[in-house]
């Protein structure tokens, strides 16, 4: 594409050189530059892309976008100076890939918990309603039936626009994506045109990155602040920050809730491990999903679908056919009758929601055994809180290793143990080896007891010292239960 077209509507401060030249691709990683690339120099948290301008030129870049011009300009190269290269990258990528979000309806889901479930359920719903869609989530990227491995919850701006362009070319009418706080903060969604934006909830998470809860909250809010007047924002007003999210948005605001009056109101009528009887906007239906948090997820899916123009009854009929999302309150049962729940819950709020949902369903004759840990090199302040929650709401909590990454697992466990109240000391134990912890839970369990294994959900690896070892909670549970005759 011609450089002049790529620069369309980009606020440029200075241009040195020819903008009539052809550009083969856009890159912000100098190692990936090929002949005739446009290299965008971004100042990251680890390194400054401006330091690699010479390297990018050596590899064949013919154009450079930067915040500071090099002292010596190469007359064969075109230099474009902008105020913020990270912000410009999204718009450059969108222009380069033909502004794909002008040709499909993009739905963004943000919040602390429920992003993956809601996005996946909405993607599956659109499929049941006979519409081709794309999905960009923590678990996977999909273009209709085609599946790609996921690298980030919200991929970089170039990858994002590349996926969306492919979705348009494949005939997709919709694209559903998770929008992470990291993605918002790093301008990865800049230049995208969202038709609908949904807010699930906001609780304690990512304070290793954002430092304070207010900073985290304001980052999420920025997503709604930047919506166009043509967009619709749907927010959870049962969350105390649900109205804060949309207070400055130019989009049309719609609400969903279970506890208060809202545009989309839900009620949980009955629940067991096989599913729930629900009432949305006074219409009853059955869902095979379980857990009160899933009522919120489905309610947001319902609201988005109706805002997209689908008939309420058609939407609810399709919602009743939706299956559970992999690793999200996923229910398994051993030959001996033990129930296993595998869930991705890795924040205090998510863990509490899952435990409360199980406790609401079970009669107190069955025991609830929880196996969980906390990830290393991440927000440390939530560890003690999760120890407190798990030990108070389980018959037995077994604290173990999650993805310790570069941290010592025993140190992480000590920080979790610090949150256990004295009256619950007899209700927990610690086993650093995750497989051994699961084995202990199965050994302790009897028929009809429930074992919750939380924290990793869909993940099929354990990250220890930078090495990813194969580990699948579901696989380990079923394998050990069979081996132990349970």
UniProtKB/TrEMBL annotation:
UDP-N-acetyl-alpha-D-muramoyl-L-alanyl-D-glutamate binds at residues 30, 153-154, 180, 186, 188. One of its GO terms (molecular function) is magnesium ion binding. Pathway: Cell wall biogenesis; peptidoglycan biosynthesis. Its EC number is 6.3.2.13. The keyword Nucleotidyltransferase does not apply. Residues 109-304 form the Mur ligase central domain. Meso-2,6-diaminopimelate binds at residues 378, 402-405, 455, 459. Gene3D superfamilies: Mur ligase, C-terminal domain, Mur-like, catalytic domain, MurE/MurF, N-terminal domain. Keywords: ATP-binding, Cell cycle, Cell division, Cell shape, Cell wall biogenesis/degradation, Cytoplasm, Ligase, Magnesium, Nucleotide-binding, Peptidoglycan synthesis. It is an enzyme of class 6 (ligase). Its main location: cytoplasm. The keyword Cytoplasm applies. It catalyses: UDP-N-acetyl-alpha-D-muramoyl-L-alanyl-D-glutamate + meso-2,6-diaminopimelate + ATP = UDP-N-acetyl-alpha-D-muramoyl-L-alanyl-gamma-D-glutamyl-meso-2,6-diaminopimelate + ADP + phosphate + H(+). A motif (Meso-diaminopimelate recognition motif) lies at residues 402-405. The modification N6-carboxylysine is found at residue 220. Pfam families: Mur_ligase, Mur_ligase_C, Mur_ligase_M. GO terms for biological process: cell division; cell wall organization; peptidoglycan biosynthetic process; regulation of cell shape. Residues 327-457 form the Mur ligase C-terminal domain. Its cofactor is Mg(2+). Belongs to the MurCDEF family. MurE subfamily. Catalyzes the addition of meso-diaminopimelic acid to the nucleotide precursor UDP-N-acetylmuramoyl-L-alanyl-D-glutamate (UMAG) in the biosynthesis of bacterial cell-wall peptidoglycan. PANTHER family: MUR LIGASE FAMILY MEMBER, UDP-N-ACETYLMURAMOYL-L-ALANYL-D-GLUTAMATE--2,6-DIAMINOPIMELATE LIGASE MURE HOMOLOG, CHLOROPLASTIC. This is UDP-N-acetylmuramoyl-L-alanyl-D-glutamate--2,6-diaminopimelate ligase. It comes from Frigoriflavimonas asaccharolytica.
């Amino acid at each position: 594409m011609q450089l002049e077209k790529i620069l369309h509507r980009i606020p440029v401060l200075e241009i040195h050189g020819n903008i009539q030249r052809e550009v083969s691709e856009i890159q912000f990683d100098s190692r990936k530059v090929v002949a005739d690339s446009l290299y965008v120099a971004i100042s990251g948290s680890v390194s400054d892309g401006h330091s690699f301008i010479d390297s990018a030129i050596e590899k064949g870049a013919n154009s450079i976008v930067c915040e500071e011009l090099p002292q010596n300009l190469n007359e064969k190269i075109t230099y474009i100076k902008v105020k913020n290269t990270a912000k410009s990258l999204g718009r450059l990528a969108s222009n380069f890939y033909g502004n794909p979000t002008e040709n499909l309806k993009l739905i963004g889901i943000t919040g602390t918990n429920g992003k993956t479930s809601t996005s996946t359920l909405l993607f599956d719903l659109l499929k049941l309603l006979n519409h081709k869609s794309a999905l960009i989530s923590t678990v996977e990227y999909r273009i209709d039936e085609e599946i790609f491995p996921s690298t980030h919850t919200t991929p970089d701006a170039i990858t994002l626009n590349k996926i969306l362009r492919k979705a348009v070319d494949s005939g997709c009418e919709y694209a559903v994506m998770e929008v992470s706080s990291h993605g918002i903060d790093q301008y990865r969604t800049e230049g995208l045109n969202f038709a609908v934006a949904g807010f699930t909830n906001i609780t304690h998470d990512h304070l290793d990155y954002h430092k304070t809860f207010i900073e985290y909250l304001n980052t999420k809010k920025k997503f709604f602040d930047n919506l166009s007047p043509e967009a619709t924002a749907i927010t959870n007003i049962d969350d105390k920050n649900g109205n804060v999210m949309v207070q400055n948005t130019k989009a049309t605001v719609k609400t969903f809730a279970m506890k208060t009056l809202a545009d989309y109101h839900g009620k949980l009528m009955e629940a067991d491990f096989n599913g729930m009887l629900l009432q949305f906007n006074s219409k009853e239906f059955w869902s095979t999903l379980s857990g009160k948090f899933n009522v919120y997820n489905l309610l947001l899916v319902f609201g988005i679908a109706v805002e997209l123009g689908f008939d309420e009854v058609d939407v609810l009929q399709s919602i009743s056919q939706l299956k559970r999302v992999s690793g999200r309150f996923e229910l398994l049962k051993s030959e001996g009758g033990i129930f296993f729940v595998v869930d991705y819950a890795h924040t205090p709020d998510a863990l509490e929601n899952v435990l409360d949902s199980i406790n609401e369903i079970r009669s107190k004759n069955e025991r609830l055994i929880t196996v969980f840990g906390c990830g290393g090199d991440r927000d440390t302040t939530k560890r003690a809180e999760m120890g407190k929650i798990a030990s108070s709401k389980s018959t037995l909590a077994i604290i173990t290793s999650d993805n310790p990454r570069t941290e010592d697992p025993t140190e992480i466990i000590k920080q979790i143990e610090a949150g256990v109240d004295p009256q619950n000391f007899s209700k927990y134990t610690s086993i650093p080896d995750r497989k051994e912890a699961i084995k202990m839970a199965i050994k302790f369990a009897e028929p009809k007891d429930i074992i919750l294994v939380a924290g990793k959900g869909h993940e099929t690896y354990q990250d220890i010292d930078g090495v990813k070892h194969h580990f699948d909670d579901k696989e380990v549970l079923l394998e050990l239960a069979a081996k132990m005759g349970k």
